[in-house]
Amino acid sequence: MSRFTLERAARGTTAPGGAGGKRRRFRRTRAWWRRWRLPVLGVVAIFVAVVGWSVGNALTAPGGGSVSERLAEWARDHYLGPLVTLGEWMTYQPPKVGGKPSFALTGPAAVPVKPARHPVKATPAPSPTTLRTLARGAPLQDEGKWRVLATVHGRPAIYGTDLRFSPVYTSYVGGIAWIDQNMVKFQLRPGSEDPGAGNWHAAPDIAAGTRRGLLATFNSGFKIASSGGGFYLHGSYAGSLTPGVASVVYYRDGHIAIGNWDQTVRMNHDVAGVRQNLHLIVNRGHIPATVDNANNFSFGATLGGGYYVWRSGIGETRSGAIVFAYAPSIDARGLARLLQRAGAYRAMELDINPAWMSFMYYLPRTHPANPSPVNLLPDQQQPADRYYYISGRDFTAVYAR
Prior knowledge:
By secondary structure, the protein is an alpha+beta fold. It folds into two domains: 19-91, no CATH class; 147-400, no CATH class. Helices cover 20% and strands 26% of the residues. The protein contains five helices and 17 strands. It has helices spanning 3-10, 19-60, 67-77, 81-91, 332-341, and strands at 147-152, 155-164, 173-179, 184-189, 214-219, 231-233, 236-238, 246-251, 256-260, 271-276, 280-283, 309-317, 322-330, 344-352, 359-363, 372-375, 395-400. A seven-stranded antiparallel beta sheet has the order 1-2-3-13-12-14-11, with helices on one face. Strands 4-17-5-15-16 form a five-stranded antiparallel beta sheet, with no helix packed on it. It is globular, with a radius of gyration of 28 Å. The model is unreliable at 301-305 (pLDDT under 50).
């Protein structure tokens, strides 16, 4: 043993990693902590306070949604999307094979609706024909049969039906609405959070005093930042209107059109609003192969990569009628087939996941100025009166013409 080693052994430090070295490192660490603990604790306190304020604001801001939905939205907006996706993956339930629906395929019918202003001069379109189920075997009672959801001056304006959309997942039902543009007016409404504050000249809710003649409401697309396009309303923009992106175009006379921006639809002085979202899932009556790109998230493979989730979409028939469809546990191609079966010549996906799905029609009953909302599908998560309160997301309102 060398003299150096003997001297270190006498002091209890035979090696740099021995007990003496550990004691010195501990003393240095303790000294560092004494010097810096107040600044470190201050930074942590500021971080917790800022995050707490941000989360608290997200939970209490007007716009609707459960605590879990709001927390998920906050996390995605603050670069924590992978954490949310992990949670969704852990809770994702694949669709059940076989079975029958848990509810009857019918619902409350409409009663005559008095329009807000002048009588309709246009001739109503012919009623839609019964739809054939996409499931195997005979249809269920009332499946694919249209019922009147709303009328204008006693003439049908909106029809609805329920349809199974899969030969495998036969217990799931899609809701479809068919809307006669000759009888109604469409309005794009902004959300309080998306697109947020702006000079939109439109309210983020259907407030009391503005409900006379209200016939239907339904959800819009992805959050604008994730839509692949932009939002335009009454001269103001959120994001940029992108060529080639699927778009719902709202015109000043109340009708809408669906197509690829700057191709089949474009800006002109008659345009009041534009809502873009992804790409067409039905084009000229056909389903493009790109719809299967849902496998690489092009059409929103959320819930941890689960492709069979709640989805909604909107289409336009060759005659100009509008069809809306939504369903649980459906992939992008299944949604496209549902819209195609309803007659869509061009169609696009809107939002996905249960928290954002909604189609409501409104029955005037004894109070035409405050009609009673009814969910088209009884298993949709959102309450029927969702849009009677401020909505965090943009949406569409349909009024009698």
